[in-house]
Structures are given as structure tokens and as C-alpha cells.
Amino acid sequence: MQRKIAITLLTTLTFTGAFAQLSLDKLKEKVTSVTSSTTSLSESDIAKGLKEALTVGTKNASTQLNKADGFYKNPVVKIPFPEDVQKVSTKLREIGLGKKVDQFELTLNRAAEGAAKEAAPIFLNAITSMTITDAKNILTGSNDAATSYLKTKTSDKLASAFSPHIKKALDSTTATRLWTEITTTYNKLPMVKKVNTDLTKYTTDKALKGMFTIVADEELKIRKDPAARVSDILKKVFGS
Predict the structure, then answer these.
(1) Per the confidence metrics, is the pTM higher than 0.90?
(2) Which of 39, 134, 151, 194 could in theory staple to 187 by disulfide, Cβ–Cβ 3.0 to 4.6 A?
């Protein structure tokens, strides 16, 4: 059983690119090293390592996004003017209301940044309920297998937690008023199709997408970057 675990671990590491730069001879040496060094690597070790990896990744993601400009100044996750009504933004900029559009985008991102703190306990609950089978499937899966697992387990709960928080944030700032002003101004323009986007749902969906993007980045670091393996169990499972 220990030999099978060692072989499974080596196969996973190979697919994640950990040994991509090794020559054939060095790869053979690594096989011997991994096989001998994992004699005490049990299935519970694998599960413990993966749970810790997910805990580290989700905590980092939540912390990174739950601060000023966590969304707004990160081009990868920044929440833009709603895509389905992007024409509104373009038209308003044409008539000199660009500053109001920029202010509106900022308030959307601030709402998402505030809601990001809601993710940590939801992620932790999903992580602690992970089974041995879940852990093995993640270890032998793709580079974002852990992130995919979290999406399946937490998306609905995250949406439920984020949505009221974001709605409250939007209502307490200028976002809702700005959106009303923006859409009212736009809808009064001649020859345009009126818009009525659900602002809370839009911001919540974008916030969740951004959260999982950062979680996936954290997972990849732990799989491929030795410096990101911050404990002995992570080094043991993913390699040093």
C-alpha cells in the first residue's frame, strides 16, 4: 500500500510539472528518493497535507482580497462595469460622465472586498469534511483539482453569505444611488434599449469568480513552489 501511495504521489508531481526540468537519469534518482522517503506516508498523511494546503490557500486568498484595493487594483479580479450593459459605460463616457462611471466601479469592488471575509469559515467547513477519497482524487487530479473541489462544495454557501453583505455595502455607499442615476440617465437617451441589471447578483458572482481565481493561484504555488510549502506535512505530501 505504501509503495502504491509513493507511486501515486510521484505520478501527480510529474503531471504538475515538479520534475519537468529533470533529465531521465535524475528522474530515476528522484523515483528512488521519493519511494524510500515515503515509507511513512499514509493515506491520513495525504489527507492531512491536502487539508492544510487548502487551509493555507483559502486563508491567503481571503486575506488578499479582504483589504482595500484587493479587488480594485488587481486587474485579474477587478470587477468592471457590468459587461451586459457595457454600452452604458461607453455612452456615458461619451457624454462626459466618465468620472461617475469610475466611482461606480470603485464602489462595486469595495463591496466585494468587504464580503471576502465571509469566505474563510465556509471554506474551512468544506476542508474539515474532506474524506480520504476526496484527498486522493485531488492529489492525483489536475493543478486546480483542490479549487474545483471547493467550488463544488462551497459556491452556493458563499453566494448566500456574500449576497446580503454586498447588498448592504452597496446600499450604504453610493453604489445603489449611482447605479440608479446612471441607468436613469442612460434610459432617457433616445434610441437606446433600457437596462435593468441586478447589481447585487452581478457583484456577488464577480466576487466569487475572483475568490476562486486567487485560490487556484495559491493551490498552484503549493504544488509547484517549494517556498510555498510552509509546513513539514506539506513538504512531505507535495515534495520538498
Answers:
(1) no
(2) 194
